[in-house]
Amino acid sequence: MLAASHATLTVHVLLFASYADILGVESVDVTMPAPATVGAVVAHLRALPGGNQLPPKPLCARNLAHAGVDDAVADGDELAVLPPLAGG
Amino acid sequence: MGFITDQPLELAALARSVMAPERGGVTSFLGLVRNHQGGRAVLRLEYSAYGPMAEAECARIVDEAQSRWIVAVALQHRVGALEVGDAAVAVVAASAHRDDAFAACRYVIEEVKRRVPVWKREYYADGTVAWVDPTANLQHA
Fold it and tell me: What share of chain A is helix, strand, coil (3-state, %, to 5)?
C-alpha cells in the first residue's frame, strides 16, 4: 500500500455536535506516523486541548462508513468522530 | 430526492413514491418532535447531520430492507430547526402483503436510529440547551 512506504500519513478529521464543541473545531488535519489505525488518530485527538473529554473509543466513520478503532487509516482518508447518534 | 432534507416531510408524497398496483400493503412510521425529554419540557430542537455519510447510510439501510423483504421503501430525515409536533423522520414500506411491509418499516427505523449520523440539540423551557445523548438514558432509547 502506498501509505505504508511513507513515513507519515495525513487524515482529514471531522468533528460533529458535542465533539466539535469540546475541541472548538469542526475539522482538523492530523499527520502521524504510518501505518496508523482509527484508534491512533483518536488518541492523537485526545491529546489536543480539551480532547481528554472525548471518549477513548468513540463511534467513528472512515470515508463515509462506520469503522472500528482497530481499522487501518490511509493517507488522505476522511475520518469522522461521531458523538452518540440521536436521529429519528 | 435525498434522504436528508431541510424541508417539511410530506408523508403522503413519500407513500405515493412507493405505491404500485402490485403492492397491496403500505405501512409507515412518522417520528415527531416530542414536548418532553427525560422529564424536562422541550420547546424546540435543531437536528444536524453529517450529510454525505447520512445519505450513504440511509441508502445502505434501504437497500438492505429491499434485499431482505419484497418491499419498496421510502425514507426521509429532516434537519434544521424543528418545533414540537414537526415530523423529524418518515419511513414508508410498500409490499404485496402486510407482513413484509411491517417488518421492513420496523427494520428501517431501528437501523436509522442506530446508524445514521444525525444529532439533536434540545432547547428546554427552563432556558437550557443540550445535545441529546440517547446512550446516557437507555430507558428512552
Answer: 25, 35, 40
